[in-house]
Amino acid sequence: MSEYFKNMTVLFGGLLVENTNFENISFFPKSQENGIYVRNNSKLTDYKFLTQMFMYSDKNLKECDFQVVDNKKLNAESLCGSGLLHYFTDLRVKGNLKDCGCQGDEIDDSTLSTYKTCQNSYNGLYLNNVTSKDFSSLENIMQVKGIIDISDTDIENLSFLKNLVTFNYRNQGTKERISFNLQNNPKMTRFGMPVLSVIHNTEVERTDGPEEGIVLFNFENLHPDFCLTVNEILLFLELNVTFRNLNAKVCDVSQEILNDPSICTFETLEKLHEKCIFVIGDVIIDSENEHDIVNVGNVYYIFGSLTIKNTKLKSLAYFFNLLAIVHLGDGPVIQLISNKELKDVKFDNLRSIITSGHRQAFIQDNHPDIFKSSGGNCIISDPENIYIAYRTRLNFTGTDCDGSRIEEQAETGAVTGQPEQQPAETDNLCVLNSFAALQRIVFLHVPSVRPIFSGTYLSVIISFCWASIIYAHFISFYKCESSLGATKICEHFPDIAFLMIYRFSLCMLNFLTAYFYYSIHKTIFTFSSCAVTIIHNIIPSEPIEEFLGDISCYYLVFFTPIFPAVISISYISSMSHLKSLVSRIMRHN
């Protein structure tokens, strides 16, 4: 049959396959075009039918093609913001009677001058390998919808985007996706976008207050003197921007310090005055100045690192106004060393930590109960808000967190030890979703039980919930002592869609990486310490009871298919209760 259909590209009408002996219908060729195409319709004047269509992206979050092109009587000026189309950023609308904007991904040296009248750029704004020195033709752009990517140019700053107010990007689900990329621009010394004030994720319905979500920028391989002003950094903090890499310095603030008493450089803790809100420099608190700790009470932002060592402090509650730490130098952003009485290390209002790329914290030789209140998990910010947890995520090292002893260099205060392992470019937020949600639920409802997940385990439970839509996690809270073997599981079950785990002895969950939708909700994967059993359609009592053994501390945590937020948690009191809950999930899905 494949021979008969090999040249088919379009099927008009319906498809009926019945009363055959076909084992599959894979003889139909795969379409090379996936999306909506409205092209070269000489009499078309109405586009309303398009505004009610919703297109699902692929597993890499690439939007389906949407093209409305060369329809000479179609006024598409308002098309791109109408109906469901307001969600999408990669809309190709051109060559019609009127279009809704210009195409920001078609700019090169030959087309640059044609953008003089462009106010709204769709498909992002891409300036890649453009050699022109004059970008004044882009100065009327007021809105960009899509990714901004400026790379491999000799651009010195972005002041030519002097009217760009609104940047709309699309980040579906919780996947890390760079929405603003400045990379390999060796002459770029300043950011310089004077009126940018709105950064909006089209997937989020905006309400009053700061917009939550993941806003990931990457500023990398720019001029060694590239710097951001205090106001630019504050804008990024206000708009909840975080960075994959930030190769930058803080611009000279000497003039601001003279004119604004709220900005000051850190000299000593004693000299921090009550009007000092922005502290520039590395803040060091030790046994000689800890008596002046109350002076940090008015500090909202630290532009540098924070080191607290050899003190008798019992709590860090003095930092009750601290909102953000921005550390663009080398070394750990936070160091807590040899504070023998320190038991409370939570920064209650901390919302963001921005670093140049190394998100390291060094915590060692403090009170043995330093993280007792968080169940032994290295946590310094609010774990209940998954986005704050993402923006303040750190790689914790030192005896109080990962158990490894790291030597401190006397002169510099830097630490040496095992090379820092950077998080892989995977769904870190999704890991944090699971961690924060589990921790919150367990802490609230099951105070006697503590989850094993902590900052030190996050590097090995990569893509914990992003894995191909896990409808439920069935978890027993036991320490990880041995690994089932990620390679072995990956060989046989690379596409896991419904997961149950009990007798938790897996040390590696990084085999859970696929992301797709398919109907497998009647298949349940059960893991024990030494075997994998697949049970279809029903749940026989023998295998379940065999795996349960004498362990009774099980909790079923439900996650939605699209966004991994916890809906509820149920204590498994008996075998019949377990069967009832699982049956309910299967019917629901």
UniProtKB/TrEMBL annotation:
Residues 118-234, 275-367 form the Receptor L-domain domain. It comes from Caenorhabditis briggsae. The keyword Transmembrane helix applies. This is Protein CBG06535. It holds the Pfam family Recep_L_domain. The keyword Membrane applies. InterPro entries: Rcpt_L-dom (IPR000494), Rcpt_L-dom_sf (IPR036941), SPS2_domain (IPR053079). Keywords: Membrane, Transmembrane, Transmembrane helix. The lineage of its organism: Eukaryota, Metazoa, Ecdysozoa, Nematoda, Chromadorea. The chain crosses the membrane at residues 457-475, 496-518, 553-572.
